[in-house]
Amino acid sequence: MAEATREHPRLKQRYDAELRPQLQRELGLRNVMEVPRLTKIVVNCGVGRATQQASLLEGAVADLRVITGQKPLVTKAKKSIAGFKLREGNAIGVKVTLRGDRMWEFFDRLITLTIPRIRDFRGLDPNGFDGSGNYNFGVTEQLIFPEIDYDKVDNVRGMNITIVTTARTDVEGKALLDAFNFPFRRTGERT
Predict the structure, then answer these.
(1) Whether 158 contacts 45, CB under 8 Å
(2) What is the pLDDT of residue 4?
(3) Which residue in 80, 110, 148, 160 is deepest, having the highest Cβ count within 10 Å?
(4) Considering only 32-36, 87-91, 137-141, 178-182, which range has the smallest mean pLDDT?
(5) In Å, how far are 14, 36, 96, 132 from 40, measured between CA atoms?
(6) CA–CA distances in Å: residue 137 to residues 42, 130, 164, 191
């Protein structure tokens, strides 16, 4: 039987063909395997009010499923906090971990379609790195994703997106994201 050849996402092809050798030269790395690359993207949506209203959690699951194309995992509280009326084991959020081709396709949609749709957008904070080359940023509403149907939105909810890389330092991580033309705010500009 002939095996069907599947094409890789366009951003992955561009990374392998152009960006990886360019990054190797820029960072002064000897081995091509030392060049930073994307490992996974984690999209996390906290729904703290789901303890009082369970339908909010169902809406968050449906939204993340549409945005990422993958079934989200429901996260539960690890311990009880009386001040927040939270009990251990209550469902309080949803998350999706994207890897492989889905990750590349989501990243492509994120930087070409989604982030430019943010109202009054002036760039993302270049200081969102965690010290190990991974980048975190928050989105205030899910309506910026073109996959979301405005008429079916029950509640506006924000989410946190973490881009995990193999970079050893923040400088390498920023160089990797800059190679993809990630929309960082220029130094000296304020939000």
Answers:
(1) yes
(2) 59
(3) 110
(4) 87-91
(5) 18, 12, 10, 14
(6) 11, 11, 12, 14
